[in-house]
Amino acid sequence: MIDQTHHLVTNPQRYFEALGRVMSALRETSALSGAAHLDWWQGKGGRTWEIEWQGGPFPAEVAARLLGVPEPGAGDDGAYETAVHGLIAPAAGSPERAHLVVLGVPVNLRAIDPVGAGQVWAALTR
Q: What mean pLDDT do residues 9-23 have?
């Protein structure tokens, strides 16, 4: 396994650009609708970004939205363009975490007490 370098130390522009792209995509896609208390911090000594929220959608749902995956039942009208280029892999055995790699920088998504996108949508349309 190749040892990762500290992105903040070796390439701070790329490290912060990755965070900026994810935060912009979160806003543009409304991926965190229904969530509260959004927070982010540097993880693993400048190797990752950790993004966390309370309530709202599950991290895998947010990651799929950021990557432009259409929601079930959505038409294929091209409205879901990829907002963030990267790789997604859900954390093993945990619906509360998802993992993206953006510009070579690992980004971990975590939800506290998520309710799921379906429940959020139902609450918003009542």
A: 87
